[in-house]
């Protein structure tokens, strides 16, 4: 999938990771003769260095996208069925809020120069549980899937946050339980998603945060939209 993402999918945002701290990180493995070998992450991005290649095959899924569950309309969404949510707010149930976009009707050049990004900021208590929540944009289906915690997949899904179990030293909370809190954020690109939903002219974005598992230790502190350049 990494190779397909870098070489096959359209879009100018398919760029290599350039963070030197990440690229220069390394691991030690043992070869067939039990000799230690140091391997840098940067080397794994080049299939030629790994000495293998992929067969060219048809990928039908690249051109098949699910349709929105609501009818796409050209009428701009200037009002909102959802009131702005006051943060911070615990993610112990579905959170629906509206976010004002910094701009609309951007030109093709503006979209190429800047990605519109949805930023979900939160604090998370690291526990011995797997954590996941989903983020939906302009999902006007008005069904009970979210409330019933049904794991449906639909085009309005902007992305998901997951966190693996954390073991080790924790801080002691006021109630005597072991807990460690850290700040984090989830950033999701909106350019392509809003185009596919026909919502480029909308002044606001309806955002739904849907808890899936282990989110009782998450507190949402802010939801906003920013522009990000390369």
TrEMBL record:
Keyword Chloroplast: no
Keywords: Disulfide bond
Domain of life: Eukaryota
Domain called Polyphenol oxidase C-terminal: residue spans: 87-226
Domain Polyphenol oxidase central as annotated: residue spans: 16-66
Stretches assigned to coiled coil: none
A GO molecular-function descriptor: catechol oxidase activity
Entry keyword annotation includes Cell cycle: no
InterPro entries the UniProt entry points to: Di-copper_centre_dom_sf, Polyphenol_oxidase_C, Polyphenol_oxidase_cen
Pfam families, per the entry: PPO1_DWL (PF12142), PPO1_KFDV (PF12143)
Sequence similarity: Belongs to the tyrosinase family.
Name this polypeptide is given: Polyphenol oxidase C-terminal domain-containing protein
